[in-house]
Structures
1.
Amino acid sequence: MGRKLKEWKDEMPLFGLNGKTGGLVYYELNGKPVVRRAGKVSLKQYRQGENFAELRKHQSEFGMCSQYGKQIRESLGAYLPLFKDHSCSGRLTGALRKCVAEGEGIKGQRIFTQACLARLQGFAFARAYCFPSGFFRNPRLQKVKTGKSIVLSFSRGLLPEDMKSYTRLVLGIIILSGLHYRGKYELLHPDWHGRSFFQKTDLHAFTQAEEQQVQFEAREFIPEDVLVIGLAGLVDDKVTGMGWLVV
C-alpha cells in the first residue's frame, strides 16, 4: 500500500493489541502483529506518488476484471440465480485476473485476448459443482463465414451419476468487447459487450460420443475482433441447476 509497516520483534510482548491508539494502528498481517501510523493517503499522493505506482497498476486491472466479471454474470440472465453461489463474483474476478496476466500490453494496461480467456475453461459458477470434462469433451468455438453466426462444438461423453437427475441441457455464448487503453480502459464495441445467446434442449437427445454442434445466430454481422466465451449448464424441472464456462 506504499506505507511502511513496522513488525514487532519476536522478543516483544504483543499484549493482544488490535485497533487504533495514540496515532498508531495495531493489527495482524499474515499471522504477524504489525503497527503503522494512522492516516489516509491523499488523492494526489495516490495518483502521483512513485511508491503507489504498482498499486495503481494493480487496481487498474483489478477494476477492469471486476467489470468484466459483472458483465458475464449479468449476461446469464435468468440462468444466473440457477447457477451461481455466494462466492461466484470473487472467484470469477480472480479467474479473469489470471487471464489478463497472460494478455497483451504492459502491466496496468493489459487487455484480454481470445487465447488468454481459455483459462476460464471449466470455471464453475457454483464452487460445489465441478466441471464434468468427461461429458463436455474438446469444446471449441468457431465463427461462421457469413459473419452472423458462432458455432459451439463438443463431443459428448458419459454424464456423471450425480448429474443424471437433470433433464435439460443449456448451451450458450457470451460476446464481450475487446479493449484498448488510452489513459483508462475503453470498450472497442460497447454495443456488443455482454450480448448472450442460449439454447435449451432435452439432455438425453444428444447421442453419446458423437460430435455436437450448436449454432447461435445474430441479426447482424458480428465484429471480427470481439471475444466469445461458451457456457453449458444442466437444469431440471424443479428449476435448479449448475453451470460452467466451457471454452
2.
Amino acid sequence: MGYESTLDYEFYKAEIENLDELNEKISKLDYGMGDVKVVKSSYGGYSIETDNYTGKFYDDEEFAESVSKYLVKGYIDLIYTGEDGAIWGLRVYPNKVKHLEARFFEID
C-alpha cells in the first residue's frame, strides 16, 4: 500500500527558460511526477498540469531539483498534503530547493 498525497502549488514572479526541455526531463521521472507538466498560462504566468493532482509523488524532490535548474527568477512553492493530513512542502529557487515546514497557530 502506498502513500497518497495531493499536490498544490504557487508561482511567485517565476520565470522559466527552456520549458520544453524541462518537461521532457520531468517526463522521465517514474515515481509519480512523470505525468506533470509546467505550462505557460494564458495570463503570462505558469501553472502545473497533470491528469491527477492526487497520487504517490515519491519523486517530489527530484521534480523540484529539475525545475530549479530551469527557474531563472522568482520561486515556486510545492505543497503536498498526505492522506493522513500531514503537510510538507518544497520551495524551489533558481538552482536551489528548500524544505518547507507546516506550522499551525491558534487565532482568536
3.
Amino acid sequence: MFPSDQVRQVVDHTRRAARPGRRSVVPAIQQLPRLQLFPSEDLAFRRVVDVAYASLCADAAARGRSIDPQQLQSRLRDRYPAAVVRRREAIADPGPDDVLWYVYRFGSVTPGWRWWEEPGHAWAVFDDERRFVEVSTSLTHIVEAPREALLDRPLEAFSNPADVSVPEDAAGVWEELRRRGEVHSTLRFRRLDGTPREIEYHLTRDGAGPGRHLAIVREIEPR
C-alpha cells in the first residue's frame, strides 16, 4: 500500500533536517495521499511510482510546500509518457484524513482487462536463468532481431542499455515469478533507430512445461 515506508522515511528525515526556524512541511502533506495504481500488478511501474513519489515528497518537505497530482504525473512521464494521476473526487472522499490519488500507467487503462488471455499476441519461452528458449516470429519483429540472436540470451540483454536498474529489476521479476507463479510487468527497449518503445508482458511459471516459463507479450504505443 502506498505511501510506502520509503516515502515516509524520506519525508521524516527531511523534516528533521530542516533548518531551525524554517517551516518544514505544510499541513497539506502531513497526511500523505494514498496511491492506487493501475495496473497494480506491474512491478516495474510500482517501483517507478514509489521512487517518484518519495522524491516528490522529499522535495516538497524541504521547501515547505504542498504536493498535487500534476507534480507526480510530470515526474512519471519521464518514464511513462502517457501516465495520468488524478485525485479521487472530493465527494467520494470519506474525510480529509483519507486522500486517495489514482495513478494510471496509461490514461485509458481499464482495470481488470486480462489482455494476455486474448489470442494472437507475441510470445517467448524462458528457462530458469531468464534465457530465451523459444520465441514467436511476431516477437522477433518487435525486438527487431532474428530468432537466432535471441536464443540463449537473457531477457535483460534486450532492454534499454541506459537503464542501469534493469538487471536488478529482472532478478526481482524472476523472484516474484518463483513465489507467485505469475508476474505482470513492462520492459523498455530501443528500436534500431534509437527511438524508445515499451513492451508489456505476462509471465506464467512452467507455462510451457517444467522449467519453461511462458511470456505473452504486446508492444505498447503511447497515446
